[in-house]
Amino acid sequence: MDLGTTIRNIRKQRGQTQKEFATSCGITQTYLSQIESNSKEPNLSKLKEISACLDMPLPILFFLSLGNEDVKPEKRDAFNLINPSVKSLVNEFFKV
């Protein structure tokens, strides 16, 4: 799961700087940088705040962060089949 990169990509697509986004989330730019580089893992309450600032439900943020290695081998074919369609739908719905 690559949560930090997903957060960074959505933030950038929405045209926000790290400083702007960190301020809106009530965290420091340094902490946001650590989250986005996957060197720090925020707790669940902070993730809820971040997802609220992204205007995106936390489960959607988690789904967008999933990679093949996060899915059981016996379910990867199904994941690879639906993943592009679901991500496209999410991107359209949430304007990611």
From TrEMBL:
Residues 7-61 form the HTH cro/C1-type domain. It comes from the Bacteria. Gene3D superfamilies: lambda repressor-like DNA-binding domains. GO terms for cellular component: cytosol. Pfam families: HTH_3 (PF01381). Keywords: DNA-binding. GO terms for molecular function: DNA binding; DNA-binding transcription factor activity. CDD domains: HTH_XRE (cd00093). SUPFAM superfamilies: lambda repressor-like DNA-binding domains (SSF47413). PROSITE patterns: HTH_CROC1 (PS50943). The keyword Nucleotide-binding does not apply. This is Helix-turn-helix transcriptional regulator. The lineage of its organism: Bacteria, Pseudomonadati, Bacteroidota, Flavobacteriia, Flavobacteriales.
